[in-house]
Amino acid sequence: MTYWSVWVRREWLAQVMSLGKYLTSLSEETSMSPITAPVAPSSTQTSPTAAPRPMTRAQRDRLTSDLRMACMRIARRVRFESDALVAPHQFSVLVRLEERPSTPKDLATIEKVSAPSMTRTVNALVDLGLVARADDPTDGRQVILSLTPAGLETIKETRRRRHQWFASRLETLTDDERALLVQATALLERVAAE
Q1: Which of 19, 97, 122, 165 is most exposed, with minimal Cβ within 10 Å?
Q2: Which residues pair with 147 in a beta bridge?
């Protein structure tokens, strides 16, 4: 497993953790657990552990949409509200270079951006002293990019700030809400692995 895949998984888990509050509020508003349909109160229903009815197609569609949007909002907030030292797209390039040195062309392909866009990003990172350029010893036309010590420190500090930002949000949750997030994390990991 590459460092990038571990980092992506950690990012995903961080996003999932904040969904608990949303899922709890949704279940309180609709009397619906995150994975079941609402159950109407009934005089024949005496046990609080009675099996819920399956979700309707409309309920599954709403859950799909709401969950997708919540994940996107969390990802965006983690990236933008944690006092980042560099822009999210620059941080992504730094993390790629943490895995291994690379060429601008390879980075553009991996990040799915145009070569000119990656050149601008790399130039900015070089100007900040976070990335170093070196000639490729096997191909004089290529440039190899690698992290500088300042680049590595920027990655560590950005991760620390993101973690701190998210941890402060989790502190506002109850123990029950955090337990719900543990369950949601397991479910979302399973979904992400399929």
Answers
A1: 165
A2: 131
Q: Could you tell me the two tokens for 149?
A: 């010590």
Q: How many CB atoms lie within 10 A of CB 74?
A: 21
Domain 88-153 bears CATH identifier 2.110.10.10 = no
R_g (Cα) of the chain, nearest Å: 22
Beta bridge mates, 143: 135
Q: For the segment 92-107, what is each residue's pLDDT rounded down to a tens digit?
A: 999 999 999 999 999 9
On whether the CB atoms of residues 7 and 95 are closer than 8 A, the answer is: yes
If we measure between CA atoms, which residue out of 194, 151, 184, 186 comes closest to residue 63? 184
Strand partners, 132: 146
Q: Are 118 and 111 in contact (CB under 8 A)?
A: yes
d(CA 62, CA 192): 19
Domain boundaries, given as residue ranges, for the chain = 88-153
pLDDT band of residue 27 (cuts 50, 70, 90) is very low
Is pTM beyond 0.70? Reply is no
